[in-house]
Queue: 2 jobs
Job 1
Amino acid sequence: MEIIKVMPCLDMKNGRVVKGVHFADIRDAGDPVENARFYQEEGADELAMLDIAATVENRRTRLEWVRQVSAVITIPLTVGGGIHSLTDIEQVFQAGADKVSMNSAAVKRPELVCEAAERFGSDKITVAIDARRNPQMPSGFELVVSGGTTPVGRDAVAWAAECQKLGAGVILPTSMDGDGTLQGYDLEFTRAIADAVNLPVVASGGAGTLEHFYEAVVRGGASVVLAASVFHFRTFTVRQVKEYLRSRGLEVVL
């Protein structure tokens, strides 16, 4: 049986962890180093850190944030936001990241996914896919970029399949409709992505109950469950989530 992983996510802005709803209404969620250390101690399998303003502000990822967080953890760290080139990726790895997540830059220049996978290995390259519901798209989901601000008129599920062909190792889909709402992952979107690729899929956006994590795996097809709000504001601990998943018959590492 596949081992299901739990991945807290640090959305970063101005040196602080923040959390919004539908990619807006941002509020403070603490210090990144303290949060990272806490989540590792709790048993998180991996950690994500996303510089949410980097692309919108047309700048690179803040490497000092990566260094500070990577220095206090040993679990794999995925860093995203402002990744535009192979040089950016190399610098993020040198700062202590284990994987990178790219979104807007991959849409703008798909060759970057291929080049990055060839140089660094597919297992280190995650493509994040943000989408919103649009019935005019074949799958019903439209790709959006630049922190959810810009729809691009492309089908999000078809883009996931293309990313696999380009060499991506992980797909991280987030539904803008569910982000931060605590109403549950967008299972239809997550499942559509999982069915379109043969890669690990990270469920993201909207976890609010323990049942939501279970549904992301069983109904959504995810092998990694990412969450922010419920962990940052201490609704649940990582261990609570893992114990619940195990009680429902899923394999986790406690």
Job 2
Amino acid sequence: MKHVNVALFVPHEGCPNQCSFCNQRAISGKKTQVTPADVDKAVEIALRNPDSKGGEIAFFGGSFTAIRRSTMVSLLEAAHRYISDGSFRGIRISTRPDAVDEEICGILRHYGVTAVELGAQSLDDRVLTLNKRGHTAEDVASATRLLKKYGFETGLQMMTGLYGSTDSDCIGTAMQIVALRPDTVRIYPTVVLENTLLCDLYRSGEYKPQTVEEASEICAALLEIFHKEGINVIRTGLHSGGDVEGEFVAGAYHPAFKEICESRIYLKKAFEFIRENKIPAGKIEIRVHPKFVSPMTGQKKANILALKECGYTAKIKADDTLEKYTLIVTEASEEN
């Protein structure tokens, strides 16, 4: 059963750096700091949905453990009441890698925090410096180890297409993340938003953002890496909402970005299966897990059309015995 989380976006207040890509107001839609009353209001609304039972209260959007300590504790206290009475199973936060230490971990555990996500973005120090992150790859590694020591579900967030980044260093970041063994990963292709350094670099011609096509190619490769290693990718692509659309300038933003990436994976695997099993051109049947019929089909039937161009008329069928990113291709009978 999928539980509904309560998400509250904490503005930029706690972050000591102005990263090249960051416009938290656009991403979160928030201009003012969250208060304990906001927590109560959000929980009250969420509890009208019975699926909220067993979910988490999540503080995202800023650097939660770097905001004013009194503010952080007041928000944790407000949320903890609903953990104590069993309404929610825990609290999830996101923060900077250099804003985690033993004291912080003790506070978080005391108030029922169950999961901590770190905005790593890259594990290449050159890329981190160019994008004014203000922390190092080693900060990410040491914070991850500390969080795991305290028993938190640990997530790492990475970005593709950053200023000065290449697909090669993104693969390198993914492999370093794999070595750290987080519980979850989020992958965000870089988007250029108004009122950011990246926007200035883009308009001056110094930065060229990835297109959706380019970003989906590298992100598809990353999804396969993490899947192979048993690491759950819980988000791919910037979420819609806030004022993202209003502040968007350029880059790989698409509301169905993950499906585009997974469509790439399935098309590649279909062609691999056809080649390895020497399936002749003609009518074919492709079986995938029911959840992945849409990615296999592709947006606007893009994968069906790509197969058609190579001489294959494909029919997609659901097969719940198959696992994620696996498929079976067979020649279709004439009646099909």
